[in-house]
Amino acid sequence: MLERRKPITLEEAQAKLAALKLPQQVETIPVADANHRVLAEDAVAAYDYPNFRRSGYDGYAIRAADDHDFPKNFHVVGEIQAGATFDHDLGENETARIMTGAFVPDNAAKVIMLEQTRSVPEQPDQVKIMVSQDRDNITPAGSEFKQGALLIAAGTELNPGGLSLLTAFGATEVKVYRQPRVAIITTGTELLNPGDTPQPGKIFNSNGPLIANLVAESGAIVTETVQLVDDYKLLQTNLERLKQTNDLVITDGGVSVGDFDYLATTARNSEQLLFNKLKMRPGSVTTAFVDDNTLIIALSGNPGACYTGFYLFAEPILRRFVGQPSHCQKVTANLARIYPKTNGYDKILRGTYQLNDGRYQVQLNGSDVSGSLGNLQSTTCLFKIPHSHEPLPLNAEVETWLLPFK
Ligand SMILES: Nc1nc2c(c(=O)[nH]1)N[C@H]1C(S)=C(S)[C@@H](COP(=O)(O)OP(=O)(O)OC[C@H]3O[C@@H](n4cnc5c(N)ncnc54)[C@H](O)[C@@H]3O)O[C@H]1N2
Ligand code: MOO
User: Fold this and answer.
1) Which of 370, 313, 359 lies closest to 336 in space, CA to CA?
2) Is 256 in the pocket of ligand 1 (CB under 6 A)?
3) C-alpha span between 306 and 212 (Å, rounded)
């Protein structure tokens, strides 16, 4: 008997997923490993920065009292290398040779650049300063950050610049949100592995690496990718195991109404079926359910539907685990080329976009067929053609998701 499913819209399905409570857990990790991790607490300045008066140039440090009547000879009483300190005061017409980034003597008021000075013949401990300068060439202590100032706010995705800032304050560890752990199960007796000999009726498992790479790009950890032949028991054993140690399980294929579509049966028998039929194409059979407190998103096996379903349903969930919005930027775009077909369901097309005079323009990228995969490399956006009996006119406004990492 054919099971009747209750179709809901894309927006309703997304809302059901958005309403799920997700645990946001925090862990402390080395700063060196924190690129693209999300900061879980405000990072504040442990002390003033810089924490000493710093020379901006190679040159000579002088007192304010001696800053007149140039050219004039100074007695060089020391050399201050970057990393060293200088613990005595300069006297009248005394100077210290100083390097960029070095500690400025406490009673020096200015660093005269090396270019404005000349050596004094036969007098190695003397220097002639030719002219003064308006700028003091000294970076005051605390000029960039006062102790306690906010460096990076909680909820920020760290990048190389942010990590350098934390390191500048001597941080070795940082509190971040734990990355969600994701297991991937691809199903289908037709699936071959890379390196296998092509055979009639069989296909290579291209969705496995597709999902794994998309998961990793979303900032989550792929704990395991399992490829299963269509077998109900095998599916149950693997799901049971993977639910225990993962935050999300993504399955692929076997979710329609075929005799071997065991994911469909599993979803129906689950604790909480969220949806198993969408009023959209591709991926009308995309399914989501919760079992043992673990969310399972069952994507369609058709590659175009799998790709689209990942961005619409799985990616926003993965980002929520670390308190972040989806990487997909939602915009309104204009249809640059007419899409002539009409459909009873909303269509989510793989497209490309251009930004012209501040307006996004989108068009279909090659194929709209659910089973095609040739356009996934070059797709830069998804856009929605609402269900209708009439094609949308040229320039019609369409909801568009600009995809990340393109
Ligand atoms: N009688 C009906 N048949 C189908 C319906 C329907 O409503 N009634 N829906 C169609 C639609 S729409 C879709 S979408 C597919 C969804 O099927 P499944 O998600 O159950 O996926 P499969 O049947 O397992 O596979 C579909 C297609 O994709 C290929 N595939 C599967 N896994 C992979 C993989 N890892 N890498 C690459 N390609 C994969 C598979 O060989 C099939 O060609 O159902 C329609 N049928
Ligand atoms: O719902 Mo299916 O993905 O259109 O072929």
Assistant:
1) 359
2) yes
3) 12
